[in-house]
Amino acid sequence: xxxxLERWVEQCIGRHLVVDRSVKGGRTVIEVIxxxxxxxxxxxxxREFDWIVETSAYENLRGxxxxxxxxxxxxxxxxLTLLISAVAGVHPSPYDLAANRKAxxxxxxxHESQPGKPGAVPLGQRTSQRLAAxxxxxxxxxxxxxxxxxxxxxxxKMARVxxxxxxxxxxxxxxxxxxxxxxxxxxxxxxxxxxxxxxxFDLTRLYFGPWWNRPHLALAxxxxxxxxxxxxxxxxxxxHLVTNAVNRVCDGHARRATDQESFGRERLRxxxxxxxxxxxxxxxxxxxxxxxxxxxxxx
Length: 299
What we know:
By secondary structure, the chain is α+β, with helices and mostly antiparallel strands. The protein has helices at about 5-15, 50-60, 95-110, 125-135, 145-155, 205-210, 215-225, 230-255, 260-270, 295, and strands spanning about 15-25, 25-35, 40-45, 70-75, 80-85, 165-170, 180, 185-190, 195. Strand 4 and strand 5 form a beta hairpin.
């Protein structure tokens, strides 16, 4: 018997073959092939907010990204479903210099897809609210008193960081969401965490993970992005690394993923002991011009 999601897909593209199915975090995703051999992903979420976020991202970025993101074929607000095209390509290594440079170019296109606007909530308050929500969902003793004091001390410092205009952000801009095709074109998938935030927000997970103590990767990315990061952006990233560590510990604990929890604790320990990461910018005079979609497709 066909599921409700499969019946909806049939209404959109006709008869199809389901080749994969997954259920994770309240989301059901099926991969299907239509009668003409086209591959599609149908996603059903359990929160209206998540549906609005992802649907809006595909609709708003369609014109600016020049074929670098999946095509939104259909969406249903009552069923909280989306049908998007599959994207050809392979996931590059997070340590691939060329892939990082190309990913920087594409992120610049995402950030410039709409005019920036003032943030509704100050950065310090926004970070505090997020941390409070994360910690409230977890056991009180998950962090020591010393760790909690450090976490909140770093969060208070966020109030002194300048708040530049917010832009469309991907929200999970990591190599597992990049695909490189046979022609070398890099495309981006999964906009389920898209949001408006300061541009540097999209770099925090990269600095927390593959870029940690690998400044050559950050430099390659920034060359593609086309500009250096200013002092306030670098400070935002440094402070936000604590939020990344807390989130990794809590998420790993909730999923009983001891390796992830241990990784988050090690990062937190490194931050508490003053271990810093190299955060390079572009050499003076090396800034590149903004990239147009039609130009970047050839890179």
